TrEMBL record:
Leader sequence residues: none
UniProt name for this protein: O-antigen ligase-like membrane protein
Coiled coil: none
The species this protein was found in: Paractinoplanes rhizophilus
Protein's UniProt keywords contain Cell membrane: no
Length: 459
């Protein structure tokens, strides 16, 4: 009788290769791809930003399952900084009961819902970062992820056009219909589940719609505009097809109108920073042709501003800085609060007692913006300092700052676009808050930079 070889005997006993030789489980691309590709659907259903928390659950399960199958869970460079930030967010919750001077007194439990929501979203986006970064090129090619981000810029422009031409467009979403009447009418809940095209505000004389769809707020729309614009260009040019390049150029030209009519000065500044950064990167790489391209583009933009009503809209907005005083007031309150709890902050935002002129001025049916302003609601930097102190601020800035430094030598299209997105986010944090979608696009830019680096190949 011929003896059975040990390896053959093992196969006969188990019905396949030895357990230790099993191929590690792959990660499917659908959790990330479905968030990005179907975001207009999620918005219409009333899920919107909630979809990031919903799909973080299967992403976490799939990461843990593959880890159990023998595949190492890779952490992005500088992740210790992000871990510090998350720890600071958790620890600062213990200060929710504090009432800093000049703020409305509330019980800690009244503030717990908002703090818990932010923590859940920060954790969900951490899972998104790890999942997108651990996907291999075979599982989700970088080119496809870039296309998905470029697609969302097209969605942003389409939402901007909708906000311009149908500023009062809104509807009740399916998720909204499922909520109890007393819950769905709350302002915070409305911002999450009620789709609308624009925020209608009086900034330059008379109420005018400012594009917001599908991102919920005009400021978020402007922030995402800057974060996503570069990916459209990269996606179009990486195909090498003239029709894709032409389509990208047309989309960028069309985007000028909603960008101007958004009356969003932060967006205009962000685009300037974005263009200067990209130009500097290309000039340093010896690609001086970018100067000629920018000269032509600037000339065309100047003609458009002179020959159309766009120029007068910009002039009117610059002459009417109604929010300047409120922003300065809130920055002062945030810095004053920071000195009162500099290490861990207060765990969340606070409402001011009154307005800029008097503590007796507050919100009313006739003047919703007269007082009770949100300290930390006028920029991610001020919220970090106020809500999570020096520890949280250092962790947040340290992570993205380290990423910029770590991948500074990546001169590829992904390297430049990813770096530009992070740079624009540092500018925007002076006047925009990042949670939820802007921070999601920041961590995806980081994941692309990470995967594009020599140490980023998980295969």
């Amino acid at each position: 009788m011929t003896p059975v070889a040990p390896a053959t005997a093992d196969i006969q006993r188990t019905g396949g290769p030895a357990h230790g030789a099993r191929k590690p489980l792959t990660l499917p691309a659908w959790p990330v791809a479905s968030i990005l590709a179907l975001y207009p659907l999620w918005w219409a259903l009333g899920l919107g930003v909630l979809i990031f928390a919903v799909l973080a659950v299967p992403m976490l399960f799939l990461l843990l399952r593959r880890r159990a199958a023998g595949r190492t869970l890779r952490l992005p460079p500088g992740f210790a900084w992000w871990a510090l930030f998350l720890v600071a967010v958790v620890v600062s919750i213990g200060a929710l009961g504090a009432d800093p001077a000049g703020t409305v007194a509330e019980h800690a439990t009244d503030r717990l819902t908002g703090a818990a929501y932010k923590l859940v979203m920060y954790l969900a986006l951490t899972v998104l970062l790890l999942y997108a970064g651990n996907l291999t090129e075979a599982e989700l090619p970088q080119r496809r992820l870039v296309k998905l981000l470029g697609w969302l810029f097209v969605v942003t422009v389409a939402g901007g056009i909708l906000g311009m031409v149908a500023g009062n467009f809104q509807f009740t979403s399916p998720v909204e219909l499922l909520l109890p009447h007393g819950v769905r009418n709350k302002g915070f809940v409305q911002s999450l589940v009620h789709p609308y095209a624009a925020q209608v505000m009086d900034l330059i004389g008379g109420e005018k719609p400012r594009p917001a769809a599908p991102w919920g707020y005009t400021n978020t729309w402007g922030n995402n505009f800057c974060l996503l614009a570069g990916w459209l260009v990269v996606a179009a040019w990486q195909t090498g097809r003239p029709r894709h390049k032409l389509g990208a150029v047309v989309c960028l030209l069309v985007s000028i109108a909603p960008a101007v009519f958004s009356l969003n000065r932060g967006l205009w500044i962000g685009l300037g920073v974005l263009i200067v950064y990209v130009a500097a990167r290309y000039v340093l790489a010896g690609k001086l042709w970018i100067i000629g391209v920018l000269t032509v583009a600037t000339a065309l933009l100047g003609v458009a501003l002179i020959a159309t009503p766009l120029g007068s809209v910009i002039t009117a907005r610059l002459d009417n800085g109604k929010s300047n005083g409120v922003r300065s007031f809130l920055i002062d309150r945030a810095l004053d609060g920071f000195t009162g709890s500099p290490v861990i902050g207060y765990g969340g935002t606070r409402n001011t007692a009154g307005g800029r002129q008097s503590i007796t001025v507050g919100e009313s049916a006739g003047c919703e913006r007269c007082g009770n302003f949100t300290v930390g609601g006028n920029g991610q930097l001020w919220q970090l300092l106020y809500a999570h102190g020096l520890a949280g601020t250092a962790g947040y800035l340290g992570f993205f700052g380290y990423g910029l430094w770590r991948f500074r030598r990546d001169r590829s299209a992904i390297g430049v676009a990813g770096g530009a997105a992070l740079v624009s986010s540092f500018t925007a944090m002076l006047w925009y808050n990042s949670l939820v979608t802007p921070l999601a696009f920041m961590v995806l830019a980081f994941a692309l930079l990470w995967r594009n680096s020599p140490e980023g190949d998980p295969t």
